[in-house]
Specification:
This protein has helices at about 15-20, 50-65; strands at about 1-10, 35-40, 85, 95-105. By secondary structure, the protein is an alpha+beta fold. The relative contact order is 0.30. Strands 2-1-4-3 form a 4-stranded antiparallel beta sheet, covered by helices on one side.
């Protein structure tokens, strides 16, 4: 199993939906910052939001187990081998992630 690099590409806010449904003063996700990097395999990396992890872990798991040299999901989604672009499931302020297969071996407790 290999480590997967998780990069926060973008923190967003759907202003229209936030104005209608969000609490006063709601902004983009306060937990994650653009450019932040995590490495993961089978476990959520420290500092990554639990809800974001629930939304992306299956893609991390697939990349950690050998989808690095292949186009992800039958080649009809991402054109770069070993890469997936995913987001958390916050409907008002989703965070967009880039997941990349690496050559770093995963080790227990690492």
């Amino acid at each position: 199993m290999k480590k997967v690099k998780i990069t926060v590409l973008k923190t967003t806010l759907d202003k229209e939906l936030a104005d209608e449904y969000g609490v006063e003063g709601l902004g983009p996700c306060p937990m994650l910052k653009e450019g932040q990097v995590f490495y993961a395999d089978y476990a959520r990396p420290e500092g990554l939001c639990d809800e974001a992890w629930k939304a992306i872990y299956q893609y991390v798991f697939a990349l950690a187990h050998g989808s690095g040299g292949d186009l992800f999901y039958y080649g009809d989604w991402i054109r770069k081998p070993g890469v997936a672009i995913c987001s958390c499931n916050d409907g008002l302020r989703p965070v967009i992630f880039k997941l990349e297969a690496t050559d770093r071996e995963a080790r227990p407790g690492d």
